[in-house]
Queue: 2 jobs
Job 1
Amino acid sequence: MTQEGKQKLRGVLDRARRAGACPSVILTSPLKRAVETAEIAASILDVADDLIRTNTLTPTGSPERVWKEIRARKADEVLIAGHEPLLSTLVAFLLGCDALMVRMKKGALVCVDVEEEGTQPHGILNWMLISKLAGQ
């Protein structure tokens, strides 16, 4: 990750922290850039637990497998560090609308509240933050 990318990410994470983001668990792809992102997020958002590296978050993963992984953690708030195209399809899946088009720029954060913990999530989009909106 470039220095500029790290600076933009820190701005987004700082804004999210001030908005109340407080994940107890961070799931990350085992790939280098996602792990770097997760480490920066853990530092800024004061996540004490170790990062959980999972192959379900590689670019070819499926939203259904990620949902199973999230449910298995039984955490109130989970931060996910991964890659496209998985992240945008995951957001659509969590919102219960597979046809939804979401543009996930690098360093973007999306806050989705999931109301049900069944086999199919039913989420509500709270906010989406990109570096330009964080003043970066």
Job 2
Amino acid sequence: MWWNRYVGIPFEWDGHAITGASCWGLVWLVQKQVFGKNLPLHHECETVVRSGKHMDASPYFAHGIPVGIGEAKEGDVAHMWAMGPTGKTPTHCGVIAGNGYVLHTSERTGSVIQPYDREPVSRRLLGIYRIVED
């Protein structure tokens, strides 16, 4: 499976490499290396999230169109609640790995693959987006 290469990457703010990645950095990396799509890095958004402030996650999801959970396919982006010390914010994301699984990362775990239709991810899932390039 393509996603095996990305499991276990340590979390790194503003990271977008196999050696360390943030949630959007991981999405960016997988989209580029696996699906051949070029997305912006959005460092300004990560700076706001890292500061513990709430942000509008629309810059991340402006690159896709919403699809139903039942229509999710490999490479789609999962939009999720972030759970942090300042509470819950709609600023987390991951990549659909197929068969009901999402690849995502956090400071606590690094990158992992988990089912998105069961706890703990199912309660965090806000939507699925299919990347469209200009």
